[in-house]
Design a protein that fits this description.
By secondary structure, the protein is α/β, with parallel strands linked by helices. The protein is built from six helices and eight strands; from the N terminus they run ααβββββαβααββα. Helix 3 links the parallel strand 5 and strand 6. 30% of the residues are buried.
């Protein structure tokens, strides 16, 4: 079922607080102590990242995928967050990430509605960005990823810009030219001709 079908107005949305109560009951763990918390695919879905998230003080990996979240919010209390999974939601922009800009290493945000990458530059430690199947369509947005000093692994398939240049056969070349530090693009190692020759000589 396409994710949009999950998001028709229906029963009252599940709140983060309710989802956390359920999660504690299912796992026997305490929210404030847990390092990994999975709140994906709630029924009815979560629509808001509300202030209850601030109780996840030890959380390193948070999964909120397959819900109906429209905005990234309330991450201020998550001082240890390293991996944030928000795939298959209705997120339209990257505002709200500044709260975890100093710690987040992986952002999984495929299958959303993101067209612009404004705000991504705050992610000083981000190494992995999975954002396939979004709406990014021009290089002016794509090059904002060059502001991420640690980015090594990027998945960008299914964005209009990738589809356009892949059909012309120049996607990998054009993308890696703009992001020379990438090691992996769309699951494939980036092979740099010059590097290999240089290494042979040293």
């Amino acid at each position: 079922m396409p994710s949009s079908e999950l998001c028709f107005p229906q029963a009252k949305a599940t709140t983060i607080k309710e989802a956390l109560v359920k999660w504690e009951a299912n796992t026997g763990q305490k929210v404030g102590e847990a390092k990994a918390v999975k709140l994906y695919g709630q029924i009815p879905p979560i629509e808001k990242m509300d202030a209850s998230l601030s109780t996840l003080v030890n959380c390193e990996k948070l999964s909120l995928s397959t819900n109906c979240i429209e905005k990234i919010a309330n991450l201020n209390g998550l001082k240890n967050l390293r991996i944030l999974s928000l795939g298959r939601n209705n997120i339209k922009n990257l505002n709200g990430l500044e709260a975890v800009g100093e710690t987040l290493e992986e952002l999984w945000i495929s299958y959303n509605q993101i067209e612009k990458l404004k705000g991504i530059h705050v992610m000083k430690k981000l190494k992995v960005l999975y954002m396939s199947n979004n709406l990014v369509k021009d290089w002016g947005e794509f090059v904002k990823l060059a502001d991420l000093p640690s980015l090594a692994d990027l998945v960008f398939v299914g964005n209009p810009i990738e589809e356009k240049y892949s059909s012309e056969g120049s996607w990998i070349e054009e993308a890696t030219k703009r992001l020379p530090k990438l090691r992996k693009l769309d699951g494939n190692p980036v092979i740099k001709q010059d590097d290999e020759e240089g290494e042979g000589e040293s």
